[in-house]
Amino acid sequence: MMPNAVTEVLNVEGMSCMHCVNAVKNALSSLTGVGTVDVDLADKKVTVGYDQDQVNLEQIKNSIQDAGYEVK
Asked: What is the pTM assigned to this prediction?
C-alpha cells in the first residue's frame, strides 16, 4: 500500500464511449504514483487512487485535459 495514498473522484465531461474510458485510463495510468483508475461512463466520474508524494491532483487533472476531456 502506498504510504500517502488518497482517492479523488473527479467529474469529467466529454466521455461518451469505451474509447474515451480507455483514453482517460491510459493517460492517468502513465503517471508515476497513480495506483488505481476507475471510470464510470454513465455518471461521468473518474475515481483515481494515487500517492501524494509522487503526483498531485493538478497533474492528474492536466493529464485528463491533455487527453481531450474537461474536468469539472
From this structure: 0.92
